[in-house]
């Protein structure tokens, strides 16, 4: 999902620039630097102390006495400077200041170069402050090569993508750690070590051969039935029980006293098989949709050790009163993102749209107390109050898309608390740098609210009478491999991040298929398939994440998830994806873009990626677009060619259900990207003027496509296809 900046080089960043810049200008009385042209501008200024400014972009900086006022003037503000000397040889180097910023700035990007890489170090946010407040960041820890003069001479600091943001700074300096900061650092190091241990134990848990297994957990009336087998002969003579794992506990951790209190003993037969039926009311925690069940060997009043992997309750076993027909079959269908009330069904039909997506912000959709604009609803998880005022807008968009004959996908998003979401859905460790957050599935209350939100959506958009429209595809959060921006849960090793994400993915699957057996949950991933430059504990390689998901399904029970992939070109600024260079035709490719899209199909067709019954999982290309400014005729032609090239590549990939083009119209807050099939909306033309790509997109998969292929194929057939 694109926000107001480049997708994967993105929103972490805004303010360090300010700070670094400030250091540069202290000791001057009044200086004003301005640049808002959108192109990097050199700065011919005398050195200030030990710092020399090199270049700036979209910045105004005013220094008066000891107060520095920074104002962003465009969507890509950054500053390039010579590196600042460190205080001493210690690893920890603290950049500190006082600041005044009523709106706050959510994140900061810090890069070292030249050349300046796409990846960046993230520094703490400036929280909203209506009075002078202190700020500090351990640059030495967050960007340990910042003073490596043998490799770099300059720093670049980006701060955000929003224009007209103002922050005042004073007393900017670099210093050593205070005693309190040393104590805080030591606590952080201990927490980091604990996370590393948990991640290693999770990986060991997934790969470990267990002496027993749970094969099924199903709901039968008012009972939970657990079936399985004890394979190890000696273990059959021991006392073995099924326990319900608490939501905050990792499967690899020891059984807690609370979990041990849920133990239900099993009695294997001569072949080691067992089955127990326990009333839900008499088994605390078993009624939760996130419930996981695990076999343990008991020794007196304690759990000696876990002897099986965990198993989740099966969504397919839940009864549904709906008899919904299957959605229309899809194969390389045309789709659109960002469907809103600006469209009508006739326009979508004319374009040939058969799939589309809508964003659904989950926070505030339900409450446990009555509020204005809310309506009482009965859900499987209890009595709640639904925000019908907000839901009515979603109803309109979904019904309109259905009327046009389109299958609808909902992208489930949770706004970060730092972005104004006052609900309790966002993960408690989410960093303010993230635009959206991971749901918090660590307490019964947060799970209950998240589950109720999903149940509300499931019941509303899977009705037999289609009152509110129908949603069949559920994209669970956004670009989770770039979780630091789009699904933030703080800094986490990949196994811990995925442990939480898989719980969310399973819960969505559980709630949706409870009422719609055709519903599918999708994991959302970027084109950065195997990139080697991921930010530790912030971004991850999609291929590695998928392998982990597959391994967890193998040992904990499979479910029919799919992949929502975003194969943008290598450079978002260039539509000629046939010229992408960081691609190959093997699974070791750094990127998967449209150019090497069949590599994704190779993965999907593999035995590894198929479902447990051998079926190929579905793929949605749920977000991708091609940059083409309205005033650039060559770019407009390349955009049209890219669409036709895309369909040539997609038709080689039978697992792909649909291609959702992002976006229908250009957007003024996408960091200068003009991805739309139409130009910027205006008061008199809310869809914007059509680009040539609009009619090309309309004619794809029609008899007119062959003429367009003859016109545009030379764009890629004459390109140098050697990598």
Automatic annotation (TrEMBL):
Keywords in alphabetical order: Membrane, Transmembrane, Transmembrane helix
Superkingdom of the organism of origin: Bacteria
Transmembrane segments: 12-31
Keyword S-adenosyl-L-methionine: no
Record bears the keyword Cell cycle: no
InterPro entries hit by this protein: DUF5722 (IPR043780), GH (IPR017853)
Residue stretches making up the DUF5722 domain: 329-715
Protein name stated in the entry: DUF5722 domain-containing protein
């Amino acid at each position: 999902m694109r926000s107001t900046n480049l997708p994967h080089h993105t929103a972490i960043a805004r303010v360090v620039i300010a700070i670094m810049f400030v250091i540069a200008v202290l000791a001057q009385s009044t200086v004003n630097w301005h640049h808002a042209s959108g192109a990097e501008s050199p700065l011919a200024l005398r050195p200030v102390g030990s710092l020399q400014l090199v270049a700036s972009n979209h910045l105004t900086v005013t220094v008066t006495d000891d107060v520095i006022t920074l104002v962003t003037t465009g969507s890509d503000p950054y500053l390039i400077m010579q590196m600042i000397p460190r205080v001493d040889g210690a690893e920890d180097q603290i950049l500190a200041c006082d600041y005044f910023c009523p709106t706050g700035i959510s994140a900061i990007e810090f890069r070292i170069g030249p050349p300046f890489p796409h990846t960046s170090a993230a520094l703490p946010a400036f929280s909203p402050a209506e009075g002078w407040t202190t700020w500090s960041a351990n640059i030495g820890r967050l960007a340990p090569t910042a003073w490596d003069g043998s490799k770099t001479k300059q720093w670049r600091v980006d701060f955000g993508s929003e224009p007209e943001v103002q922050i005042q700074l004073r007393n900017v300096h670099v210093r050593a750690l205070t005693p309190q900061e040393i104590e805080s650092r030591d606590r952080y190091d201990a927490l980091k070590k604990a996370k590393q241990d948990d991640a290693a134990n999770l990986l060991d848990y997934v790969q470990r051969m267990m002496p027993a297994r749970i094969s099924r957990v199903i709901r039968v009336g008012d009972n939970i039935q657990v079936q399985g087998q004890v394979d190890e002969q000696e273990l059959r003579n021991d006392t073995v029980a099924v326990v319900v794992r608490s939501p905050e506990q990792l499967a690899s951790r020891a059984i807690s006293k609370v979990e041990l209190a849920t133990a239900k003993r099993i009695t294997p037969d001569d072949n080691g098989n067992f089955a127990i039926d326990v009333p839900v009311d008499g088994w605390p925690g078993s009624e939760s949709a996130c419930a996981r069940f695990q076999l343990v060997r008991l020794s007196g009043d304690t759990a000696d050790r876990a002897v099986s992997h965990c198993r989740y309750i099966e969504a397919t076993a839940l009864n549904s009163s709906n008899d919904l027909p299957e959605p229309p079959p899809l194969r390389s269908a045309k789709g659109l993102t960002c469907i809103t009330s600006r469209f009508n069904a006739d326009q979508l039909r004319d374009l040939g749209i058969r799939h589309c997506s809508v964003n659904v912000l989950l926070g505030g959709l339900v409450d446990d107390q009555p509020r204005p604009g809310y309506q009482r609803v009965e859900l499987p998880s209890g009595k709640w109050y639904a925000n019908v005022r907000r839901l009515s807008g979603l109803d309109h968009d979904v019904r309109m898309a259905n009327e046009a004959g389109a299958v609808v996908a909902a992208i489930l998003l949770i706004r970060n608390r730092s972005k104004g979401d006052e609900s309790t859905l966002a993960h408690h460790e989410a960093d303010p740098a993230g635009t959206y957050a991971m749901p918090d599935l660590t307490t019964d209350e947060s799970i209950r609210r998240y589950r109720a939100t999903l149940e509300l959506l499931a019941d509303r958009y899977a009705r037999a009478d289609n009152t509110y429209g129908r949603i069949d595809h559920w994209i669970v959060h956004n670009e989770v491999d770039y979780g630091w921006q789009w699904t933030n849960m703080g800094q986490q090793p990949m196994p811990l991040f995925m442990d939480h994400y898989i719980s969310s993915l399973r819960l969505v699957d559980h709630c949706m298929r409870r009422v719609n057996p055709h519903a599918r949950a999708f994991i959302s991933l970027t084109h950065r398939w195997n990139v080697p430059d991921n930010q530790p504990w912030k971004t991850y390689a999609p291929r590695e994440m998928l392998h982990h998901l597959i391994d967890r399904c193998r040992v904990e029970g499979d479910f029919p998830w799919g992949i929502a992939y975003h194969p943008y070109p290598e450079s978002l600024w260039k539509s000629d994806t046939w010229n992408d260079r960081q691609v190959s035709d093997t699974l070791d490719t750094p990127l998967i873009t449209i150019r090497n899209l069949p590599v994704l199909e190779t993965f999907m067709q593999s035995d590894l990626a198929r479902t447990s019954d051998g079926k190929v999982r579905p793929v949605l290309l749920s977000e991708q677009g091609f940059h083409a400014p309205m005033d650039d005729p060559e770019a407009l032609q390349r955009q049209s060619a890219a669409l036709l090239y895309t369909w040539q590549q997609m038709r080689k990939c039978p697992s792909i259900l649909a291609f959702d083009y992002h976006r229908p119209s250009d957007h003024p807050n996408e960091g200068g990207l003009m991805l739309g099939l139409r130009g910027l909306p205006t008061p008199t033309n809310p869809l914007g003027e059509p680009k040539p790509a609009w009619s090309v997109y309309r004619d794809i998969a029609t008899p007119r496509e062959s003429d367009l292929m003859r016109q545009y194929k030379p764009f890629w057939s004459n390109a140098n296809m050697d990598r």
